[in-house]
Amino acid sequence: MIGLLGIFTLFLAMGLVIMRRQRLLSKEIWAFVTITCIGLVLWGSIILQKPLDLNKAIAGIIESMF
Amino acid sequence: MENKPLSALQMFCIVTCFTVGTTFIMLPTATISDAKQFGWLVHVWSLVFGVAIGSLWIYISKQHPGLSLVQIASKVLGKYMGGFVSLCYIVLFVQIAAWVTRNISDYMHVTMMPRTPPTIFHLMALGVCAYAAVKGIRAISLVSIFVMPYTFIAFWIPYTVMLTEWDWRNFHIPDDFRLWPTIAETKYALGFPFMETISFMMIFPLVRRKLNTAFLGGTAFAGLQLALSVFFVIGILGVYRSSHLLYPEYTIFREMEFSNFMEHFESILSVNALLLIFVKLSAVYYFAVTAICQLFSIRNRAAVAYPLVWVISAYALLFPNIAENAKWVRDYLFIYYTPFGIGFPLLLLIMTWIRGLGKEGRTA
Would you list which residues of chain B are within 8 Å, Cβ to Cβ, of chain A? Predict the structure, then answer.
C-alpha cells in the first residue's frame, strides 16, 4: 500500500508539473486529478483485498432482476 | 473532437480489427461447447444481427449529422438525462477496455509467459494505447490499415494448410439442432463483439463518405472470418477436443508442421492476436477518452488518457481467473449490453422523432 501511495504521489506530482508548464485549464487539471484518484481507490481496494467489484455488482443486479 | 475525416477504407479496417479483436481467441470454445458442430452457424446469425443493429445506429447518426454518440445524447435527451446516458457509455467503454486488457494478459500468461504477473502486461499495453489515444483516431486507423492485411494473410495461409487434417465426420455427431434454444443459449455471441461496436458511433461523423459500406462491410467481413475460423476448428479438431481447449486455434497452429526447419507457428498466431487486440484496445480507449472530453468539454486528451491507465489497469484485475471471466460473459454479458446496444439507441431514436430534432424532422 505504501508503494502504491508513493507511485500515486509521483504520478500526480509529475502530471501537475507538466500540466502547469503546458498552461492547461483548471478543468483539465481537475479531470486529471479526479480520474487518478478513482484509479487509486480501485487499486487500494484490490490491495486491501476488498475490491470494489463492478462486475460482481452488475451480475448481482441482473440476478435480482431476472 | 478531431476534425480531419476518416476514409471508408480506414473505417473498414478499424471495424474489422475491432470486431475480430479478442473474439477469435475468446469465443470459439464457448460456441462449439454450446452449439456443437453448429457452432460456426452461431457466428453467422450473430453477424446478421450485428449488421442489422449497425444499420439502426447509422440511421440514428444520420439523423444528427456531425454529432457523436455523446453529443447526440446531450442534444436529444437534454443536459442532465443526456449526461447520464453519456456517463453510462463512458463506463461501458472503460469496462470494454479493461476486459480487453485482461484478455491480452490471460492469453499471454497461458500461452507464452506464465511467470510474468498480469499487471506487467496491463501496464505495458495500456501505456502504448494511452499514447495512441492521445495521437488520435487517424493514427489508430492507419495502423489498422497495415495490420489487417498482414493478420489476414498470416492467419489464413497457415490455417488453410491444416485442412489436410480435415475430417467431415466431425460434423456428423448425433445432436438435435433446435434454432431458438441454441440462439438463447449462445446469446452472448450477439453481444460480444457485435454490440460493442456501438462505440464507433463516437467516430461516425468523421466518415463523410460510404459510412454504411465501411461500417457494415467491416462488421460482416469480420463476422464471416469468425464463422469460417470456427468452421475450420470443428473440421480440424472435432467438437469434443475443441470444446475442451482454452484456445483451439492456438492448438491448431502449435500442431502445424510444414517441414523440419519451420516450426512453432503458434508464435505467428500470438503476434496476430497481439496486433489485433492492440488496435481494438487503442480504439476503445480513444472512444472512452473522447467521450469524457466531449462530455466535460476538455480539450487536452492527454489529461484524461494517462490517468485512465490507473482505472483500467485496476479494473482489469477484478476477474479472479479466466473461468470466472468466461462465466460472466456467458451469463450476463448479453443482458448487460442490451441497454447500450438496443435500449439507449431506441430511446434516442424515439425522442428524436417526438421532438422533431432529426434531419427528417427539420426538413418536414
Answer: 95, 292, 296-300, 303-304, 306-311, 313-315, 317-319, 328, 331-332, 335-336
